[in-house]
Amino acid sequence: MATAALALLAPAVAVHDARQSRDTGLPRFVLWAWERPDDLRGLPRSVGVAFLAQTITISGPSHLVSRRRQPLRVDEGTKMIAVTRIEAPGAVQGVDVAAISHAIVDRARLPMVAGVQIDFDARASQRPMYRQLLHAVRAGLPPAMPLSMTALASWCLDDNWLDELPVDEAVPMLFRMGPAAAVLRAQWGIGTVAPKCRTSRGVSLDEAAPRRGGSGRTYVFNPGPWNAAAIRAAVEEDR
Predict the structure, then answer these.
(1) Do 172 and 51 meet the contact criterion of CB atoms below 8 Å apart?
(2) 199 within some domain
(3) Based on the number of CB atoms within 10 Å of its own CB, is 31 exposed (0-12), middle (13-18) or buried (19 or more)?
(4) Which tens digits make up the pLDDT trace of 73-117?
(5) pLDDT tens per residue, range 173-223
(6) Whole-angstrom distance, CA of residue 167 vs CA of residue 148
(7) 175, 209 in Cβ contact below 8 A?
(8) C-alpha radius of gyration, the chain, whole number
(9) φ, ψ at 230 (rounded to 5°)
(10) What is the pTM of this model?
């Protein structure tokens, strides 16, 4: 089968299906491919790949864009989601939101990319900038291209700030939840989940996930390298 190496950084124009909804067409199962060499050829057609395309580090008014460095091999036709990780250990006042949004939108032009995802554990003080950034990215993407964001589990349970964001899904990260993990897991089974968090979830192969509670898209993180056994665990067990 033909393959594509998405570590290549040269822009390419992807062919996108016409959709009535921006979320239509993304796979039910998506494997996260982080910053390491991965060979994900041979996936079922129902499985997609969300790959770390770049990391943007914000320091005061400045930011640094670090493109993916590790190779990733997939079959031609695999649906890909370009993930931008944002690191912002300090204040974000004065940052060039337009430039950051352009960098994120640019990754949507990589081969076979069918969606864009932003991974940013924004603190409360950083939310106004993040909201502005999401609106800028949405405006810059093709209208039919889905925009996804990861979400802390607490965002989906404790407040409603996600409701107004221009994203097609907020993926609750139901692993590595820290000291409040037990409480969050208990709340997930009985609490009211924000609407944008109801269509997907993020789990890890090395942690038990809360019960699904309905159909939806599952993103799977693997702390180790992807191989045939790990892919079977992610897909066939229907976590």
Answers:
(1) no
(2) yes
(3) buried
(4) 999 999 999 999 999 999 898 999 999 999 999 999 999 999 999
(5) 988 877 777 777 777 766 678 889 988 899 999 888 776 545 589 999 999
(6) 6
(7) yes
(8) 17
(9) -65, -40
(10) 0.87
Give the domain range for residue 98.
25-235
From the list 68, 161, 80, 75, the residue with the least C-alpha distance to 116 is 80
Domain presence at residue 201 = yes
**Inside any domain, residue 1:** no
Question: CB–CB of 220/239 below 8 Å?
Answer: yes
Long-range contacts of 183-188 (CB under 8 A, 24+ apart): 184/153, 184/154, 184/157, 185/210, 187/157, 188/153, 188/157, 188/213
Domain membership flag for residue 63: yes
| Paired residues of 127 in beta bridges | none
β-partners of residue 147 are 116
DSSP 72-110: EEEETT--EEEEEEEE-SS--TT--HHHHHHHHHHHTTS
CATH label of the domain that carries residue 131: 3.20.20.80
In 69-224, which ranges are E strands? 72-75, 80-87, 113-119, 147-152, 169-173, 200-204, 217-221
Is the Cβ–Cβ distance between 42 and 75 less than 8 Å? yes
Residues 6+ apart with CB under 8 A from 27: 46, 47, 48, 79, 217
The tally of domains found in the chain comes to: 1
Structure tokens at 146: 């889905």
